[in-house]
């Protein structure tokens, strides 16, 4: 029987051929013991061959064979439900893969074969009114060169059919690429045959300039799907909804809703189609942005929570030193805003040129269709559109054709236009007003009564041939412009900010994160409480997260990086030592901005005593792959399409040298030891806050222990579940009596971390010693250096697992205090800004279900520690479920609660 469809918590699994449905079944006992309520699966529909993520769907009517097929999914759902676990599935409504071979996507194959006569002609965002309508940029050279070389041929191939069979038919072949042939043209000479198709084979570089189907961002191999069409929506969602109706799927996560023509309508359609279910959406909100209340969903996937939770453990006071270090080493005097603007201009003029060009052509056609607008030139329209896209400060405004633009959404476009005006010529300002009006769907932006017959004859105006052939009247064209402008804003923002500027402006990369802002460092306790109170009031069942398959760094890497803001002076010393040790390697073409990126990456992934992930520093293989991706995403000196081998080798050589150099190791070890107490507080504090704050917390696979992963594909590496099972069993076995919460592993003295492990050489901590029995980490031996804060002797992995399991179990025991409208969030007062505390309770209940207490910025407490600082607890008696320690209510010394761990989770003693 399916559990409550609204989760109390979720656990994300990344499914692929190496981790199938049956592999997931094998971990369900662990997830149940951990305390999660729902298994959260990455996309389960049939994806392109070899897919490691599932977002490249090729068949919506079929569960992935690589994952185990429908039978495998049914086994997973049944096994999960038998353990009281629900199942949440990731849905990809925005796009489908353009696979190799292409016939694996039956719908796209048929469109390329039959064009407008295909029953799937409305599936894809492409104009099929003309010949060679769909550009296929797959050739290694210009088509004339490929034809001369004989690399394009016609062959007989076996092609799959929709009913699961196969048929032999003639196809066009170019190496691994296979394309259909329009019926009746198969006997033509190759040149004429290619000209007779519904598609056009082209050099791969042509795609960025002339691509004429809407893509997922700038990925040519992901073609957008028109789910705004009722038939397409039903066909692409039928299987998932049927599984939901059977009770096998309990909720959905919606991928990239900003790419949809009408997100609000999509969510409404999904709720109607499913009869109502828990749905969260991958919406990336800016810090001052709220999810539109009209969206019929439970909330976001949690990047807004990530921003606030991580920000609590950052110290804005440390920025002055980090600024000085950044400017001195990088030589970059520009603020992040300037770097972002430059990246946006690059994006719209290169990788998204085709999308901007299409918007411009539509605007030209609208103006050509109305004599009142005809004097707006293509140049003016192009500049106004481009500048408005550049000045957008969020992923999109939510406006819909046929509906008056909501004032707050109109304001987004109007304010962007105000920022654009100083950068446009005088003759472009009224054109900008026109573009804003078109984007808002305002009347008066074309003659509402005019039809397609008013468009100029073919050859007498840009793109009017295809537009006239579509018989598209002016109103429809304005509606399309409105939709497409909104759909283009997201890719411009994502590709320029997350995938370019985040890799260029490296002052403090701990905030260069999805949903975060590099200029926004540090969140106050009041700011955190305000955010949580707002969530409770507006989106109480939203998802919260700290790590996802899309985050640039795991939560624990960011927790380590946050200490740079607490210890900026010590970090500056570390960087100085690293630079001195690598002086001979630091020459052209290496740049200072990337160098600082390397040092921060090493600091976040260096060895970390007490953790399996940090037993050794990041491997050379992982580091090289990550830095290659980072450099190419930055697009400063090297790119994916035009890599600069000399530059890449120089950067990687620097990083790999640091992995093996004793002086570099000593500098990084010393910094790691110095910040160990704060890292511990950050790792445990972030986890406890996210798991007990308003919303539905998601735990990304393996992150119940310390995880030092970087951006994908690094965060999709194999998870050692045996280690996690054994460690959890060890923690549970220490309970004094059945049902008693296990205390944390013992320290040498209560509240005092034990010395660091013995080093093989000065400043080089030894690996964490082997536990004498499963699940029980051995205490660390004595440090060889005096006067420097030492890492904790207890296993940080065990402590994080303790916090995670106890918080998740508590949520499952008291769901109404944590989930949905029935729950309340109550800030708890403390006399120190270094403690953040709140209570969770059932709405209107006098007794609280739990009180969360976490330490932030502990380095600033000084030698006196908590001293006489207090927390104002409700009256009564409590117990810390993490340690078993009894706690009296009322004014209570923080030192009495946080003497053993930097976090506490209190429940009524009677519980």
Automatic annotation (TrEMBL):
CDD domains given in the database record: AmyAc_MTSase
Transmembrane parts of this sequence: none
GO BP: alpha-glucan catabolic process; trehalose biosynthetic process
Lineage: Bacteria, Bacillati, Actinomycetota, Actinomycetes, Propionibacteriales
GO molecular function, one term: (1,4)-alpha-D-glucan 1-alpha-D-glucosylmutase activity
Glycosyl hydrolase family 13 catalytic domain ranges (all copies): 7-478
Recorded superkingdom: Bacteria
Stretches for region Disordered: 443-464, 732-798
Protein name per its UniProtKB record: Malto-oligosyltrehalose synthase
Chain's gene name: treY
NCBIfam families attached to this UniProt entry: trehalose_TreY
Coiled coil: none
